[in-house]
Amino acid sequence: MVDMLNAQDDLYHVNLQGLDKGETINSLTMIDVISRALNPYTQNDEFMKLAEQPEMRFVISNTTEAGIAFDPACKLTDTPASSYPGKLTQLLYHRFKTFNGDKSKGLIIFPCELIFLNGHKLKETIYQYIELWQLGDEFRAWFEEACGVYATLVDRIVPGFPRKDIAAIKEKIQYDDNLVVQAEIFHLWVIEAPQEVAEEFPADKAGLNVLFVPSEEPYHERKVTLLNGPHTVLSPVAYLSEVNIVRDACQHPIIGQYIHKVMFDELMETLNLPKNELKKFAEDVLERFNNPFVDHAVTSIMLNSFPKYQTRDLPGLKTYLKRKGELPKGLVLGLAAIITYYKGGTRADGTEIIPNDAPEIMQLLKDLWATGDTRKVAEGVLAAKDLIWGEHGDLNTVPGLTDMITCFLKSIQEKGMQETVKGIL
């Protein structure tokens, strides 16, 4: 990526496509704000020299959910450390030494990885490296007092390189841009930071949807529940109904009703924000799902479906049960659809079903489905507390859940997915 950026003089285009209040938008903008790109694995000396720049102030990262992790094998003398938090700790320590602990030379750090309270997690990991590498109390105090690591939430669907449209884009700009990025119109960046940070980083003044808030938790919960949660359950339901694109699922006469039920009748009932605000957000999400420019394949969402359901949908299922005294059928059916998807085999149209998850989860589902008993399948999946459900424990203890999952599994096998969905609408 660095070599590709440098080959293009650090220039690339962003292609924004989608609907904004019902209006179709298709814009192409050159991004010219990158001064240089460095590869720390081949240019580590230059990378570390960044810490010597007095004017350096902000560090922004997106290393994916797996990126903020502690690797005890990393050493201070590595050039560089293999983990992102390790590299960042090396950079911070070099800056601390360069400026002799000057507290005015601290950094403001915005991690954008999709982890709840990502700033807290990154900060904890840096502390682990400070202890592992024995960097001393003075550096630890400088990091605590001079630097700020703030939790953030980013929200924008970015499909990436627009293969379908690249020929037309190159014709328009009259040269080859091999780093064009396609994204939707909607964007939101929530930063949990005090007002003085907002004043130093006035992104909202540039007309960007950047919010500085006392707590990102309600925004995180809203996004995970009303965007990621529906994504996770609609995808297997749609796929097993022979619908492959999120937009097509939303517009499907049966699957579309299912998505609406899950969002508005079930998940929305589990949140504590004002109903009008939640309704507006859910309507915006549906408009995003219906983006005519973005062919968002449901199979891309179904990677690691069980961990996703555990974090995105299971909390809502349990909250709904507690508040309403009954199980949310749409969310339960979504779990049954995931379990069915992991059976593999072929769809009615001949498409091979190829689930993808951790090997031990794949083996568990293979063994359970080999019994030929839907009850045993349901009980076995729900009992996998160590493998899947974590702190939620054995889900067979959730009143009525085992019976409902068993019923849905049997119905999907006998009647098919669409007929099963009809039964709960």
Automatic annotation (TrEMBL):
<dbReference type="InterPro" id="IPR036291">
    <property type="entry name" value="NAD(P)-bd_dom_sf"/>
</dbReference>
<dbReference type="GO" id="GO:0019592">
    <property type="term" value="P:mannitol catabolic process"/>
</dbReference>
<dbReference type="GO" id="GO:0005829">
    <property type="term" value="C:cytosol"/>
</dbReference>
<dbReference type="InterPro" id="IPR013328">
    <property type="entry name" value="6PGD_dom2"/>
</dbReference>
<feature type="domain" description="Mannitol dehydrogenase N-terminal">
    <location>
        <begin position="1"/>
        <end position="200"/>
    </location>
</feature>
<dbReference type="InterPro" id="IPR013131">
    <property type="entry name" value="Mannitol_DH_N"/>
</dbReference>
<dbReference type="Pfam" id="PF01232">
    <property type="entry name" value="Mannitol_dh"/>
</dbReference>
<feature type="domain" description="Mannitol dehydrogenase C-terminal">
    <location>
        <begin position="217"/>
        <end position="412"/>
    </location>
</feature>
<dbReference type="InterPro" id="IPR013118">
    <property type="entry name" value="Mannitol_DH_C"/>
</dbReference>
<dbReference type="Pfam" id="PF08125">
    <property type="entry name" value="Mannitol_dh_C"/>
</dbReference>
<keyword id="KW-0520">NAD</keyword>
<dbReference type="GO" id="GO:0008926">
    <property type="term" value="F:mannitol-1-phosphate 5-dehydrogenase activity"/>
</dbReference>
<protein>
    <submittedName>
        <fullName>Mannitol dehydrogenase Rossmann domain protein</fullName>
    </submittedName>
</protein>
<dbReference type="InterPro" id="IPR008927">
    <property type="entry name" value="6-PGluconate_DH-like_C_sf"/>
</dbReference>
<keyword id="KW-0560">Oxidoreductase</keyword>
